[in-house]
Write a structure and sequence with these properties.
mainly alpha, 57% helix
Length: 77
């Protein structure tokens, strides 16, 4: 039996609907310039799923808005 491609390796939330919390965490991770591998592990999704959602949000013009919103809600460190 072959192993799934690392990009498609399933995780706990793979294939599930993206919640607003998932989208917030995705946008915040993009804002922080986290690598896809880290984002995927954090929100329990496959790397491909994360890349596809980022591309989808970019194409819809939603990613920048969501990143701005997460920045506005970020606590100063």
């Amino acid at each position: 039996m072959s192993q799934p491609d690392i990009e498609d390796r399933p995780d706990l939330n793979t294939g599930k609907r993206w919640s607003e919390v998932d989208l917030f965490e995705l946008a915040n991770s993009v804002r922080l310039r986290d690598p896809v591998e880290k984002i995927a592990g954090f929100i329990c999704r496959s790397r491909r799923e994360v890349r596809d959602k980022i591309a989808e949000l970019k194409q819809a013009g939603e990613l920048e808005r969501r990143v701005r919103e997460t920045a506005a809600n970020a606590r100063p460190e």
